[in-house]
Amino acid sequence: MKRILKDWLLLLASLLDDAAVILLLLLALWYFKIQISPFIIIFLILLFGLIVFLMHKYVIPTMHSKIITGSEGMIGLNGTVIKTLDPRGTINIKGEHWKARAIGSYIPEGDEVTIVAMDGLTLHVKQKK
Q1: CATH number of 70-127, picked from 3.40.630.10, 3.40.50.620, 2.40.50.140, 2.60.40.10
Q2: DSSP assignments along the chain, one per residue
Q3: How far apart are alpha carbons 118 and 10 in whole angstroms?
Q4: pTM of the full predicted structure?
Q5: Which of 101, 106, 97 has the alpha carbon at shortest distance from 119?
Q6: Are 111 and 80 in contact (CB under 8 A)?
């Protein structure tokens, strides 16, 4: 319940600038005595409601998704040893060669490994079971 409330507060905060622009536009139209059709008002309300619905459907879930960039995104990926890890060597992940250090002692060429940590540009890996 607490997470849902926090998500909605973040969502509403992101919509405040849109609501402020709409309010200023309506105030300007009122000040210059420009009449607005009720159909246009209903359309704008429905459009704003659609934007809120789409943000709820697509934006809120992304706030809780797994990080897929940077060092956090590398953790858990699998790769193949291309230069024996004894304990240092080279692995291939998604077509890229990375320096790696085996957790344990020895992982032969061709074996599958899983990244468990990252120290600078050196990946710490363990043999995939």
Answers
A1: 2.40.50.140
A2: -HHHHHHHHHHHHHHHHHHHHHHHHHHHHHHTT----HHHHHHHHHHHHHHHHHIIIIIHHHTTSPP-SHHHHHTT-EEEEEE-BSSEEEEEETTEEEEEEESSS-B-TT-EEEEEEEETTEEEEEE--
A3: 32
A4: 0.54
A5: 101
A6: yes
Q: Tokens representing 48?
A: 């704003």
Do the strands 78-83 and 112-119 form a parallel or antiparallel pair, or are they unpaired? Answer: antiparallel
Other Cβ atoms within 10 Å of 48 Cβ, number: 14
Structure tokens at 5: 């409330």
pLDDT in tens, the chain (129 residues): 677 888 888 888 888 888 888 889 889 988 999 998 889 889 988 998 898 888 888 888 888 887 777 888 899 999 999 999 999 999 999 899 999 999 987 899 999 999 999 999 999 999 987
CA distance 114 to 126: 5
